[in-house]
Design a protein that fits this description.
Keywords: Flavoprotein, FMN, NADP, Nucleotide-binding, Oxidoreductase, RNA-binding, tRNA processing, tRNA-binding. The chain is of the alpha/beta class. It has 2 domains: 236 residues, TIM Barrel, CATH 3.20.20.70; 64 residues, Four Helix Bundle (Hemerythrin (Met), subunit A) (Up-down Bundle). 42% of the residues lie in helices and 14% in strands. Strands 1, 2, 3, 4, 5, 6, 7, 8 and 9 form a 9-stranded parallel β-sheet that branches.
């Protein structure tokens, strides 16, 4: 029997304010196999927050799903990793790539690339605490640590600590002078550095991330690395993932239609709303469903005109489907 294709072969990037449990449920209706990630959750929110259930809870349908943690204390990260494992997450991912001001002030995220020994210790502590995979998402460099030699040194340290898989955003992070948004587009993409890493660490699973928008690009990257992570394109054009299961995981199941996805969102929204949730918290994530299709603008307008109204509910979707 051939070994199963690992879920990290295709994944949706963790994105703050975007990849919450509602978006992940929505994406799971489109692809059953792609690996999904939570938004980054800080160790403080989990260990000191009054309601960590709000940050950690997820639907069983979301599997496979990884919990991304942000922090710089090996012990705190390990404690949170264990909590995540107990919640049922399939992977623990450490954020060493986020360039936001808030993350920098906490001395974690991309700034940690300047401290490979500390990141290795973080990995080691987590590995000792959980049985599920421990992975790291990082950049190819950061201010003052921008060379391939710096990147190689960083990866060699975390590999030695037992990291199971790395996800590499193929841009450096410029912490002084660029906003988080600019850091996603201004530093040039250096895919060749990630390919070189794979050659230098052939037994370490490596996923590439950054600026990937099409199936042609995905297929090309997969000839050189083990996995591809798609970020903004997955949110802006979620139906890109309708072909993922058959193209990259060998699934023989019939892909969903946009209309079938909307039908399945109706009971989900009803259940969430009856539990006290707001309709727009769910519907804001599905506005890109018809991206690139005739009627995409009308779909977005239909939802945005209605989802913030008092009493807004799942009838918005029912009405659209029945049009």
């Amino acid at each position: 029997m051939p070994s199963p294709v690992p879920s990290y072969r295709i994944s949706v990037a963790p994105m703050m304010d975007w990849t919450d449990r509602h978006f992940r449920f929505f994406m799971r209706l489109i692809s059953k196999r792609a690996l999904l990630y939570t938004e980054m959750v800080t160790t403080g929110a989990i260990l000191r927050g009054k309601d960590n259930h709000r940050y950690l809870d997820f639907s069983n349908e979301e599997h496979p799903v990884a919990l991304q943690l942000g922090g710089d204390s090996p012990k705190a990260l390990a404690d949170c990793a264990k909590i995540g494992e107990d919640y049922g997450y399939d992977e623990i991912n450490l954020n060493v790539g986020c360039p936001s001001d808030k993350v920098q002030s906490g001395s974690f995220g991309a700034r940690l690339m300047k401290e490979p020994n500390l990141v290795a210790e973080m990995v080691s502590f987590c590995k000792a605490k959980v049985k599920i995979p421990v992975t790291v998402k990082h950049r190819i460099g950061v201010d003052g640590k921008e060379s391939y030699e710096d990147l190689h040194h960083f990866v060699s340290k975390i590999k030695g600590a037992g990291v199971d898989h790395i996800i590499v955003h193929a841009r450096i992070a410029i912490l002084e002078g660029l906003s988080p948004k600019e850091n996603r587009t201004v530093p040039p993409l250096r895919y060749a550095d990630v390919y070189r890493l794979k050659k230098d660490f052939p037994d370490l699973p490596i996923t590439i991330n950054g600026g990937i928008k099409t199936h042609a690009e995905i297929a090309d990257h997969l000839t050189k690395v083990d996995g591809v992570m798609v970020g903004r394109a997955a949110y802006d054009n979620p139906f890109l993932f309708a072909g993922v299961d058959s193209l990259y995981f060998g699934s023989k199941e019939t892909p969903p239609t946009r209309e079938s996805v909307l039908q399945e969102m109706i009971p989900y929204l009803r259940s969430f709303r009856m539990g006290g949730g707001k309709t727009h918290h769910v519907l804001r994530h599905i506005l890109g469903l018809y991206h690139g299709e005739k009627g995409a603008k009308e779909f977005r307008k239909f939802l945005t005109d209605r989802m913030h109204l008092s009493g807004a509910n799942e009838s918005i979707l029912e009405d659209y489907v029945m049009r």
